Amino acid sequence: MEVRRLTGISITYLSQVERDDRPPPHPNFLKKLASIYGVPLQEILERAGFLKEEKPQIFSEDDEIEWAFQAILRDPTIGPFIDKGRARFMPMKSKIEFIKTYEKMSGRKLVKWKTKARS
């Protein structure tokens, strides 16, 4: 009953989600659930399928960096807070630092860093 009061999500619905009978709740609700259950938000979003993406075939390190940057922009915990218009013009060096910061903070590895200059 406490979960319902704190999140507005019924226990019945959560049970159905756990059995894959219903789609997961919106990331905002998952954020509340992560806090209630003491689970890292990144983990609960991954389990709910919000952060799972198929990585395309990467042709160059720059392609991989761009893919990782775009994946971060799609992350519902980060993306809404980023000005996408300005992000389009971000220099590659800034994108690399942004990705590295994201990887450190989230524990999620997006890029297989190949050169010393970029790692």
Describe the structure in your own words.
With 119 residues, the chain is an all-alpha fold. It has 2 domains: 2-47, no CATH class; 53-119, no CATH class. 55% of the residues lie in helices and 0% in strands. The chain is built from 7 helices and no strands. The radius of gyration is 17 Å and the shape is elongated. It starts with a helix and ends in a 13-residue tail after the last helix. The relative contact order is 0.10. The model has no long low-confidence stretch (mean pLDDT 81).
Structural class: mainly alpha
The number of strands is 0
Radius of gyration: 17 Å
Order of helices and strands: HHHHHHH
Terminal residue distance: 48 Å
Helix tally equals 7
How would a crystallographer describe the biggest sheet?
A: none
- What low-confidence regions span 5 or more consecutive residues with pLDDT below 50? none
What are the main properties of this structure?
119 residues, mainly alpha
